[in-house]
């Protein structure tokens, strides 16, 4: 009897009884080799013989259900993939294929079939280990034809750059000896490295036939470098951007695009956005940990203004400043903008001036429900050039701080914000008190104020108000969660003492 594929081996080892426990127990369900000494039946011997050299014949439908199950249980997973796809749709068998090839199990399956999970991982691994010098368009085309109908999500964690050409001519050392002149080898090597192209495989053919692709995540770097480390192994070239853009033009069903941890600047970003020009289904754009400057932020703002279905924009850890965020802030107030989530964490070049522009957009009535400005360099000093035309009561002799503008924007009743992260900043006093009072008057239910520069009292009041608002919303929806008594009592006191919503729903 074979070990069942549906049982995790770690679970089996954990719950397996020791030999010294329950010695008198006769029936042991954890012993799967109980029939190892039993003679095999003629049917089992025939099924085993068929599984040894099986190449699609006989058909699985020709076998009895019991024999078919045993046949799939002992069938080798190294059979050519084309034969398996054409003849086997059993989900348990494809799970066995996945486990036999990779040790890790995907965390988020999302009700996908195991054949889909296997094909997505198999195709991604093929692209990740493919050297551009060994690129065979026909082989890629055949693999796309085989795996394409099953691929919905493609995650490429690294790509192999093209190797340097072999120097078979006279070496620089020999050239120096022949000419009688010494040459600086480091300069020669650096110059050679800079002139050599470092393009990755062309993703045009790899993506153009994936008609069901809805999510794409690419990282242009190498995960395993070894002793042959070079800086140019992490480049994202112009040709890479052009080929990727050509492939994105064919992915009309794409909803989520993530290009992260790559050397993507403004020029390359424009090619990518140009490839998405005809795509009206895009929902999420994630360009985290890249090198997008103000010009790139302007291109993103123009792209958002033309699509009302984009709901999430993630630009964490880039290099744009107040000028770039001003373009995005202006788009947030357009009636056609449907953006709900904006993640700007770790953009320390924004500073107080950049976040002030964002506060103006919030005050004017944008549709954002989640905002992350963690580690954006907010300072407690007054703004040098505060945004004009929003609060006429602000005197030029007493300019506001960034914390003051955030407090005025968040405290407005029409602000739809529900989640706010302003951690790792320096709000300072007395702006922290104004921001705390604004949070009490808002609809925020999820806030992160760790290391935000706010005082302990102001932070406690704001967090209690957000907890009370969250409890109130859960009570309105009929949801009951187990809460600690101290936190619940504290939230009730805030509701009662600050009068932020009238009657307590728990009384």
TrEMBL record:
Pfam families: LRR_6 (PF13516). It comes from the Eukaryota. One of its GO terms (cellular component) is nucleus. GO terms for biological process: nucleocytoplasmic transport. InterPro entries: Leu-rich_rpt, LRR_dom_sf, RanGap. One of its GO terms (molecular function) is GTPase activator activity. Transmembrane segments: none annotated. PANTHER family: NACHT DOMAIN-CONTAINING PROTEIN (PTHR24113:SF15), RAN GTPASE-ACTIVATING PROTEIN 1 (PTHR24113). This is Dynein regulatory complex subunit 5-like. It comes from Danaus plexippus plexippus. The lineage of its organism: Eukaryota, Metazoa, Ecdysozoa, Arthropoda, Hexapoda.
């Amino acid at each position: 009897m074979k070990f069942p594929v549906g049982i995790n081996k770690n679970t089996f080892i954990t719950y397996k009884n020791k030999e010294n426990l329950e010695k008198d127990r006769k029936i042991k369900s954890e012993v799967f080799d109980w029939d190892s000494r039993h003679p095999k039946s003629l049917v089992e011997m025939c099924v085993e013989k068929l599984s040894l050299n099986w190449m699609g014949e006989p058909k699985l439908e020709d076998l009895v259900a019991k024999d078919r199950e045993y046949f799939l249980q002992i069938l080798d997973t190294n059979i050519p993939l084309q034969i398996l796809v054409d003849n086997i749709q059993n989900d348990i068998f494809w799970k066995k294929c996945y486990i036999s090839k990779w040790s890790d199990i995907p965390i988020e399956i999302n009700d996908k079939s195991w054949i889909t999970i296997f094909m997505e991982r198999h195709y991604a691994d093929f692209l990740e280990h493919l050297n551009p010098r060994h690129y065979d368009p026909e082989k890629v085309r055949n693999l796309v034809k085989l795996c394409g109908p099953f691929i919905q999500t493609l995650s490429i964690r690294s790509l192999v750059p093209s190797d340097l050409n072999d120097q078979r001519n006279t070496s620089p050392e020999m050239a120096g000896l022949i000419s009688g002149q010494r040459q600086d080898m480091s300069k020669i090597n650096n110059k050679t490295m800079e002139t050599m192209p470092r393009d990755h495989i062309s993703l045009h053919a790899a993506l153009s036939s994936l008609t069901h692709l809805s999510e794409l995540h690419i990282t242009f770097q190498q995960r395993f470098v070894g002793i042959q480390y070079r800086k140019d192994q992490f480049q994202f070239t112009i040709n890479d951007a052009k080929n990727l853009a050509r492939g994105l033009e064919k992915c009309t069903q794409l909803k989520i695009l993530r290009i992260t941890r790559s050397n993507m600047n403004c020029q390359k970003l424009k090619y990518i956005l140009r490839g998405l020009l005809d795509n009206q289904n895009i929902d999420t754009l994630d360009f985290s940990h890249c090198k997008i400057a103000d010009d790139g932020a302007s291109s993103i703002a123009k792209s958002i203004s033309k699509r009302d279905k984009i709901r999430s924009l993630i630009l964490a850890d880039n290099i744009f400043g107040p000028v770039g965020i001003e373009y995005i802030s202006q788009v947030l107030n357009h009636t056609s903008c449907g953006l709900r989530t904006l993640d700007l964490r770790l953009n320390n070049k924004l500073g107080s001036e950049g976040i002030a522009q964002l506060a103006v957009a919030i005050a004017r009535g944008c549709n954002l429900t989640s905002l992350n400005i963690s580690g954006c360099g907010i300072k407690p000093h007054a703004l040098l050039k505060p945004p004009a035309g929003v609060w006429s009561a602000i005197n030029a002799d007493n300019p506001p701080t960034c914390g003051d503008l955030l407090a005025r924007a968040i405290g407005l009743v029409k602000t739809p914000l529900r989640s706010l992260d302003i951690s790792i900043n320096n709000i300072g006093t007395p702006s922290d008190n104004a921001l705390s009072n604004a949070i009490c008057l808002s609809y925020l239910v999820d806030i992160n104020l760790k290391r935000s520069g706010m005082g302990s009292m102001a932070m406690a009041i704001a967090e209690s108000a957000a907890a009370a608002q969250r409890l109130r919303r859960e009570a309105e929806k009929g949801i009951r969660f187990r809460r600690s008594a101290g936190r619940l009592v504290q939230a009730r006191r805030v509701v009662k003492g600050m009068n932020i919503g009238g009657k307590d729903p728990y009384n």
